Write a sequence for this structure.
């Protein structure tokens, strides 16, 4: 909510989204080093974690706050696979130390939920809120 509330939309809707990765209740933030990224990916290997996005869409008159949860299961990864992923550098600036839309897709065995949520924008959730708030926009001309 803070991101969306910090912007003056000057009459236009403002969207704010923040995404976290959670493993057994522990939030895995953005790793600060390759060693931290390696440790995160090792912890995720062979396990299921949650990707949770909080979304706020607001105007001066109203505000919609919602969340999306997607379950992601990593394959059992070898030390060599983890090292190659970390060496590629894709983990930088990524919650949980991976980016599913790139090389990180090779780490994943299964996704239960919205793929776009894992990328960082819960598409299904956003479309649902937009269709409720702006029903005329969904009509074809």
């Amino acid at each position: 909510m803070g991101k969306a509330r910090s912007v003056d939309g000057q009459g236009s809707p403002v969207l704010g989204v923040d995404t976290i990765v959670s493993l057994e209740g522990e939030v895995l933030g953005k790793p600060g080093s390759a060693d931290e990224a390696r440790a995160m990916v090792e912890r995720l290997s062979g396990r299921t974690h949650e990707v949770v996005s909080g979304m706020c869409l607001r105007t001066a008159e109203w505000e919609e706050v919602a969340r999306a949860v997607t379950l992601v299961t990593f394959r059992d990864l070898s030390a060599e696979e983890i090292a190659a992923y970390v060496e590629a550098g894709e983990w930088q600036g990524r919650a949980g130390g991976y980016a599913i839309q790139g090389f990180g897709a090779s780490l994943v065995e299964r996704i239960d939920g919205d793929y776009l949520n894992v990328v960082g924008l819960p598409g299904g959730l956003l479309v649902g809120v937009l269709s409720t708030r702006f029903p005329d926009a969904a009509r074809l001309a």
